[in-house]
Amino acid sequence: ILLPSLFLSGYDGYGEEYSCPISDEDKVIDELENQMREGVMVVDYHGCDFFPERWFHIYKRLETRGYNEKKLQDNTQCEIFQVLYEEARASYREEIVHQLPSNEQEQMEANINQISKWIEQWVKEHNS
Predict the structure, then answer these.
(1) pTM of the model
(2) PANTHER family this protein is in (predicted)?
């Protein structure tokens, strides 16, 4: 799970055009490098082009599935435009579909805490 300090150390100013923090991709990579070597991580980000391929094996996995560049771009756009979220809401019970906005630092910290609680609960329920 990404810690709030990562979000703070990975910023390189504030972008007025989109009214949001600007990420320093090199700082983010440097912060995550050791953690990624240690094991399973949940990484939540709308882009992926600056993450090292060795971390996720995204391209290898998608190439194995036959994904081309257009399909990669379309999948990213679906995420940004919440296509899958809307499909999930239409397909599943309301209480099991969650959307976690991460537009502000406080929201990101709350999301980390919530995801940690869900993981702890899942482990408790499945290790009994």
Answers:
(1) 0.40
(2) ADENYLATE KINASE ISOENZYME 6, POS9-ACTIVATING FACTOR FAP7-RELATED
Q: How are beta strands 20-23 and 11-15 bridged, if at all?
A: antiparallel
The token pair at 77 is 């756009």
| Spatial separation of the C-alpha atoms in residues 53 and 99, rounded to whole Å | 27
Count of all residues that appear for the chain in the document = 128
Residue 68, SS3 per DSSP: coil
Distances in whole angstroms, Cα of residue 77 to Cα of each of 47, 61, 72, 104, 107: 10, 19, 9, 21, 22
Distance between CA 40 and CA 119 in Å, rounded? 12
Two structure tokens written together for 33: 């490098």
Which whole number is the average pLDDT over 30-47?
70
Closest Cα partner for 100 from 90, 91, 111, 84?
111
